[in-house]
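Researcher: Next sequence.
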Amino acid sequence: MKYLLLLFFSINLMTCSNEDLPEELNTHLEGDLVISSAKDSDNATIKAFESINGNLIIKNTYEMEDLSFLQNLKEVEGIIIKDNKNLNSLKGLENIEEVTYIGIENNSELTSLTGLDNLITVSESFNIKNNDALPSLNALNALTKIGVQFSIFDNRSLTTLNGLDNLVEVPQLLVTNNINLTNINALGKINSSADIRIDSNDSLADFCALTTLIQANSETIAFIARFNLFNPTLEDMVNNNCSN
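Model: Next structure:
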């Protein structure tokens, strides 16, 4: 009888102990992860993700200031960060080194790309558009290669492209309507590009950072500068007439 009671209590204790163990969280997600509320940042399941076989989409948030709740994330196909009212940095994405696509658009309070400090490669396209408070691209110092297109559009506070100092390969570069942009010296290491279009940057008058690239590829590269403070032609660049 004593043996049966002891066995009963032992089994019961083991059952209770197993029930008390925390549920193991899945670290991988198949499909897109959509973040649309600050409440999502408190979600333990989301915090646990290390890899996403799909896109990370952060849009239409109002209270979220950074992405620190995603600090465990290491792998994702694409990143779309759009229409976030109070987002001021991308802190939390430090473990991301390679993605297929990034779009950062219409984030009115975004002042820094901190969080993308270790991003090395974007295999397709990178789009930075209409982030009115963004003054520079300083966090992108690790970025070396973009596989298809890099577009920098309509960022009203952008004065410099500092942060792109290690970018060497970008097939198509589009820099358009950044009205306070005065300095593109950070593009000086680019050695592979087929198409560069720099349009409607009202304060930009110095293109000399691109002379080495253009002179080395003058027979094959497409270069267009229009509606800037100074607009050198391809021939001007080849002849070192690169600034006003």
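Model: Residues 35 and 88 are 16 Å apart (CA to CA). The radius of gyration is 24 Å.
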